[in-house]
Design brief:
heterodimer, A: alpha+beta, 2 helices, 8 strands, about 30% strand, B: Cytidine Deaminase, domain 2, six-stranded mixed beta sheet, two-stranded parallel ribbon, globular
Chain lengths: ~90, ~140
């Protein structure tokens, strides 16, 4: 089973520079844990005690996972998960 | 140094003025590796706030995918401050996630004079840089 996980520039230090890595799992949570087992530290950048980190966008194929179950979203062979840090900021 | 065509500088300023008092935000894409900002992409501020901005997540997905398809990257990421100086705030610094980008800040706090400055933000360190016009 192979699910592609596309990694943004700022997280490629965890993947030895790779733009995408492969993983497996039944849910997004499983997939992230699986990828983290080979690229230690990646999970910590995506997930905190409350779930997916607020300023990291994660997409399953063409959808923001926030709207389709978050960490519990089911994933399957052939899916593509894309990670994009939110572009945000403020006056203070 | 950021080399920026005058028309693109004007487009960023116009966007900032138009969205004031909310913060405006957007991207100027350019060919990957070229450091040339060419394609102006104003973005929706999903926060619609005078003190915070955030790209809408689906809009960001589409724009990033489009840049990838076109072999482009975000050369400039810009946003405006509407009541404070055109300098990266603590939140700007903590959320800066494109180490290769020029972070352009515009301040619209003065109705007559706009502030337009550019910075690199890498590993939490802010370095101001000159903005040079690309026009002959």
């Amino acid at each position: 089973m192979a699910i592609e996980v596309r990694i943004p520039t700022i997280l490629r230090n965890y993947t030895g520079g790779a733009k995408s890595v492969e993983g497996s799992g039944d849910t997004l949570a499983d997939l992230i844990a699986d990828v983290d087992s080979r690229h230690s530290g990646l999970q910590e950048r995506l997930v905190d005690a409350a779930g997916l980190r607020r300023f990291v966008n994660v997409y399953l194929n063409d959808e923001d996972v926030r709207f389709i179950g978050g960490l519990g979203a089911p994933v399957k062979d052939g899916d593509t998960v894309t990670v994009l840090p939110a572009v945000a900021g403020g006056a203070r | 140094m950021l080399t920026l065509p005058g028309a693109l500088r004007a487009a960023v300023i116009a966007h900032a003025r138009a969205d004031d008092p909310d913060e405006a935000c957007g991207v100027i894409a350019g060919p990957a590796g070229s450091d040339r900002p060419e394609r102006f992409i104003p973005m929706t501020n999903a926060e619609r706030s005078p003190t915070f901005y955030r790209f809408d997540s689906m809009e960001q997905f589409k724009v990033w995918q489009e840049m990838d398809d076109r072999d482009e990257e975000p050369v400039v990421i810009y946003h405006s401050h509407t009541a404070t100086e055109a300098y990266p705030s603590r939140t700007d610094i903590s959320y800066a996630s494109e180490p290769g980008a020029h972070y352009v800040l515009v301040s619209t706090r003065d109705p007559d004079e706009v502030e337009f400055r550019s910075f690199r933000i890498i590993d939490g360190v802010v370095t101001e840089e000159e903005v040079e016009s690309a026009d002959p």
